[in-house]
Amino acid sequence: VSFLDQDSKFISAGDDYNLCGWDLKSRKNTFKLKGHEAPVKACVASYGGQRVISGSWDRTVRIWDANTTNCLWTIQHEALILGLSFSEESSLIAVCCDDKTSKIWDNRTYEEISTLTGHDNSVTCATQNGTMIATGSLDKTIRISDIRTGSLLLLLSGHTAAVSSLDVSTDGHKICSASWDKTVRVWDVHAGTYRTQGPRVMYEHEGCVSCCRFADNNEKIVSAGYDKTVIIWDALATKKRHQIRAHGSWINGVAMSRDSKWLLTCSKDRTIRMWNVSEADRMPVVLHNKLSMGYKFTECVDCSRTFKVEQRDLIETGEELTQCVYCRMPSREYYSVQMGTPRETATEPRTSEEVTQEA
User: Fold this and answer.
1) Residues whose CB falls within 8 Å of the CB of residue 77, separated by 6 or more in sequence, listed in order
2) Euclidean distance between the first and final Cα of the chain, in Å?
3) Among residues 40, 188, 271, 349, which is most buried (max CB within 10 A)?
4) What is this structure's pTM?
5) Using an 8 Å Cβ cutoff, are 183 and 203 in contact?
């Protein structure tokens, strides 16, 4: 699943050999792209949603015009295609294959640029930033290479099972990886702290993790997997912020809108679901999870924000709270006056003569 056209539309790929275009507002199917002869396992948008790139088990990559639904170009491969990556900056397409290689194609000239080798098993995923490309594999490793020359820059090891998904932060400093070992890991490839401290590892999923994405200016990470849940992480603290029981079967794809407000999840249960993660605290499913843990929630009488009432709040106040912490706080003017008053009313130190006269 991938967003198109300024996040007002999105595209999904399925095992029915087709790609479907959807309108975000009406939530209706607006077009179909037909031509693949096997399940479509990857799709990405390019050129502001004007084109769609798809990869299939029929061993072809196809580039489509999203407006006319015409297939503009077909690339035939000798191996099954397991994943795709596209960079608007370089206009290069990375094709992940089960023959242990990644093929790099120029989306403007339709020419093959390079073939990346080195993995000991099928290449499952890739992500790009500038001249750098990171590829993940069933061999449990992540290889960071120069996208044009294919020369190896870094080799990241640590996962104990296949690497299923990769994403690079917008500044190119960090890479997040998802794995069948039930973990999400964050690698600081800019500072290189993973060399001495290892990657930051996040354990919360109860099954294989199938996908991960940076969001909200690299401050969050979204992951999902075979445990049917979506977890939103604090990327800096590498701690769980929200967990959503999102589908009735395993989740195989997520996509985040540019403004980090909308999250799309697609699943083996044949559904695509849209979530407003900017108000995750007010999601019914999130509230239900917290209530099941014994938390008590109420709605603020002033701003209507849902907030948690803790036992210590009841003990301190002696009564149930009706305002959230933000509405209970005094205004900024209050603080400026209160903090300014001592300085304004403070008297100058008295001289020894004044003290003597007073005595």
Assistant:
1) 59, 60, 61, 95, 97, 103
2) 85
3) 40
4) 0.77
5) yes
For residue range 313-352, list pLDDT tens digits in order: 554 455 667 777 667 765 434 333 343 433 333 334 444 4
- Sign for the CA dihedral angle at 312, 316, 318, 322 comes to negative
Q: Within the chain, what is the greatest distance between any pair of CA atoms? A: 104
Q: Output 279-286 pairs: Cβ under 8 A, ≥24 positions apart.
A: 280/232, 280/241, 280/242, 280/244, 281/242, 281/305, 281/306, 282/306, 283/242, 283/244, 285/244, 285/245, 285/246, 286/242, 286/243, 286/244
Assess contact for 231 and 223: CB atoms under 8 A. yes
**Beta strand pairing call for 19-23 and 9-13:** antiparallel
DSSP string, 284-295: HHHHHHHHHTT-
Query: Left if phi > 0, otherwise alpha if psi is -120 to 50, otherwise beta: which for 168?
Result: beta
Tens of pLDDT, residue by residue over 87-113, are 888 899 999 999 999 999 998 888 999
C-alpha 176/C-alpha 223 separation (Å) is: 10
Task: Please answer whether residues 23 and 17 qualify as being in contact, where contact means their C-beta atoms are separated by less than 8 angstroms.
Answer: no
Quote the CA–CA distance of 142 and 148 in Å, as a whole number.
18
Q: Which two tokens stand for residue 215?
A: 């969001």
For residue 188, what are its two tokens? 């600081």
Write the CA distances from 338 to 329, 331, 349, integer angstroms: 14, 11, 22
DSSP annotation of 194 reads H
Distance CA 171, CA 357 (A): 70
The pair of structure tokens assigned to 296 is 């008590």
